[in-house]
Design a protein that fits this description.
This is FhlB domain-containing protein. This protein is α+β, with helices and mostly antiparallel strands. It is about 45% helix and about 15% strand.
C-alpha cells in the first residue's frame, strides 16, 4: 500500500499570480495536513496524480503555467462544493 501524500495550496489573487504550495508531506505529515484542513473547513479534493506532481514543487512556490489547467479544475470543484454547502447551510436558499 502506498504511503498517503498531501499538498495544500493557497490562492490569494491579490498577492499571487497563481496558487502557491503552502504545505506538503507524506505519512503522518499528510495526515496532519488533512486533519488541519478539515478542522478549518477547507474543502479537500483527492487526486493522486496531481498530488504527485505538486509534491515535487518547493514550499512557497507558485504553481507553474503548465499546471494551471489541472489546478483550475480542482479550484472549480472546490468553489462549486463550497457554494453548495453554503446554500444548504442557508436552508437551501
Amino acid at each position: 500500500m502506498a504511503m498517503k501524500r498531501a499538498v495544500a495550496l493557497r490562492y490569494a489573487p491579490d498577492k499571487n499570480v497563481s496558487p502557491m504550495v503552502v504545505a506538503k508531506g507524506k505519512g503522518h505529515v499528510a495526515d496532519t495536513i488533512i486533519r488541519k484542513a478539515k478542522e478549518h473547513g477547507v474543502t479537500l479534493q483527492e487526486d493522486p496524480s496531481l498530488v504527485e506532481v505538486l509534491s515535487k514543487l518547493d514550499l512557497k512556490q507558485e504553481i507553474p503555467p503548465e499546471l494551471y489547467q489541472l489546478v483550475a479544475e480542482i479550484l472549480s470543484f472546490v468553489y462549486r462544493t463550497d457554494s453548495r454547502a453554503k446554500a444548504e447551510g442557508d436552508g437551501g436558499a
